[in-house]
Amino acid sequence: MSARIRILVADDHVMVRQGLSQILDSEPNMKVVGQASDGREAVELAAILQPDIVVMDINMPLLDGVQATRQITATRPATGVIILTMYRQDQYVFEAIKAGARAYLLKDADSEELVRAIRAVAAGEALLDPAIAVRMIDEFRRMQSGPVGADGVTPLSERELEILRLVAQGLENEQIAERLGLSEKTIRNRLTVVFEKLHVSNRTQAALYALRKGLASLDDEE
What we know:
This protein is an alpha/beta fold. About 50% of the residues lie in helices and about 15% in strands. Strands 2-1-3-4-5-6 form a six-stranded parallel beta sheet, sandwiched between helices. Strand 4 (about 80-85), helix 4 and strand 5 (about 105) form a beta-alpha-beta unit. Helix 7 (about 160-170) crosses helix 10 (about 205-215). The chain is globular and about 50 Å long. It starts with a strand and ends in a 9-residue tail after the last helix. The relative contact order is 0.10.
């Protein structure tokens, strides 16, 4: 039996916190270990409870979700933060990802999407709401950037570039492994090296970097 995924739910609305907690506690191998009503409490409880996942609302008192995410990921990089919010504005997405969030879902997502995101992030993956991901990619394409290598990034091998391009297309590790005829463990190991070379902490940041630098394109998809 696999270990339970320990979850902290942070939202300033008590009914939302309780509802999410009931849903997640009913899932196999998931356990809500704490609830926070504001960003400051989320940071404190994350330090005390050491959850695997924090489901974080953005708009909270005392400390907003982006700031709380930044503090949690700075002290506990192993904890995966999932932003769950009603906001579709791009600025929140960019700030949340820069702060270290590994997934970003809208509050109108169904419970199955949230559960899937939690399991994916706990396994080292990263997810974004599809509509938000498209707008993020469009925005990064418009951004001006310096030449590859100007930021001190170590060049990737051909195989690493191939994997990075598939990540940028939104493929998960299992799909990449099947596409390239490699094991899923090999893909995970290769991605760890890619993250280190690009100086990023998760696949979402790696994909956005690749798109911004022109290392990959959505047009690469077959």
